Structures are given as C-alpha cells and as structure tokens.
Amino acid sequence: MVGVGIDGAGGGWVRITYDSISLCLTISETLEDLLIDGAMHFVDMPKDLGTVNQPNRECDAWMRAQLSGRKASVFTPPIQEVLAESTYEAANEKSRELTGKGISKQAWNLTPRIREFQRITAEDVYESHPEVCFAVMTGQEAQNSKKTKEGQDERIALLRRYSNSSPWKWKMSNVQVDDIIDACILAVAAYEAGTSGLALHPEPSTDTPVVAMPDVKER
User: Fold this and answer.
1) Do residues 176 and 9 lie in contact, with contact meaning Cβ atoms separated by under 8 Å?
2) What distance in Å separates the CA atoms of residue 56 and residue 76, rounded to the nearest whole number?
3) What is the DSSP string of 36-53?
4) What is the domain partition of the chain in residue ranges?
C-alpha cells in the first residue's frame, strides 16, 4: 500500500508518497500526473461543493467541530454555481445573489485547482484536511500554527512516528515548508486509511460532499 498526500503549492501541486518507510517528494503543475494506480490519495482541496439549494457543506461543519483553536483553517469554498465565473467580482456578486453571502478571495484563488480536482475520476482520490488528520491521528489538534517553527516541529514530531525521511528540508522557491509538511501528514493519513480503514464524514449519501480521514486513533 502507498499513501499519497497532495497539497497545492506555488503554481502547481506538491505530492508526498509514503510506503511505511519513506516520505518522498514530487512537484507537478498538474494534479492528474501525481496520481498512482492502486494508491490511496488524500488531497487538501475541496472537490464536491455546496449548491444553491444546499450551500453549506456538512463536511466543513464536521471538520470545524474537530478543531477549536485551528477551526479557521477550514475555509468555506464557493458553491458549484459560481465556479465557472471568470472573475472574482462576478463570482462574488453571483454568490450574493444566490445565497445572500459572498465568497472570500482565498476561496476564489483556489477555484482553478478545485476545477482541476473535479475533473479527476480515478478511484481512491479523496478530499481531506491535514489539520483534522493530525487531530485524528494524535487525539488532539495542533497547538501552534504551521507557519511557525514551533508548529512545524509539532507536526514533524507526529511524522517521526512513521518515518525518518525529511522532505521538508528541500529548499524550493515555489514550495513552502508547511505545504510539504501538510502533504506528509496527508500521505501518512492516506496510508493508514488504506491499511487500517477509511472513514468518510459525514456518512456518504447521494451528492453529499464528504471528507476522508483514517479510521485510526492515537498511534
């Protein structure tokens, strides 16, 4: 079993693979090029979106409920009906017309990657979230921001339970250290899901967005 963690970085995507021993780094401009047959993939990107009839995703509420100090890391993606708009201004206006709420610039800036993710039809490729995976695997959420040295050390301590590899030590202008660490956490979580069990939240039903987590507790 290979676990694959993927996160957006710079103008493309960062992938970490984990095979129970090594954490290996790959960078690509396209998501599809990073998929591996037979692997379990966790991607830190929304895929199935809310709609005008049901704008609030239950999976977002579930993820925020797992976090207290870090719940702001779960941002609200746009609804599906505004995804095809060509500018932030048009998408924001349409969202207000349809739902009474606008969308954030952060959400809009991710729309090209959300569209790309939605074109993926391969099996075992799931939306996930590194902060919630960390909380599931350790039994508590991270205490420090991933942008700080303390927060990075905290997350690396979890990864050291699984591997001695240190792909975050690579220096690249278009990839941040926290992006690599996030992808590492997702890769380990995907490996655990592939070997010990996959949990989808909320319980999947027709057209209901879900987020994937490993069905494991503290190691």
Assistant:
1) yes
2) 8
3) -TT-EEEEES--SPP-SS
4) 3-214
**Structure-token pair, residue 46:** 């929304």
Q: How far is CA 177 from the centre of its chain?
A: 16
**Terminal-residue alpha carbon distance, the chain:** 18
Residue 73's φ and ψ, nearest 5 degrees, are -70, -15
Q: Which of 208, 190, 170, 141 is nearest to 43 (CA)?
A: 190
Upper half-sphere CA count for residue 132 (Cβ side, 13 Å) = 28
- Dist CA 109 CA 129 (whole Å): 18
CA dist., res. 83 & res. 91, Å (int): 7
Q: What is the pLDDT of residues 136-179, one digit of tens each?
A: 999 999 999 999 999 999 999 999 999 999 999 988 878 999 99
The stretch 212-218 carries a mean pLDDT of: 81
pTM, two decimal places: 0.95
Given this model, what pLDDT does residue 218 score?
Answer: 52
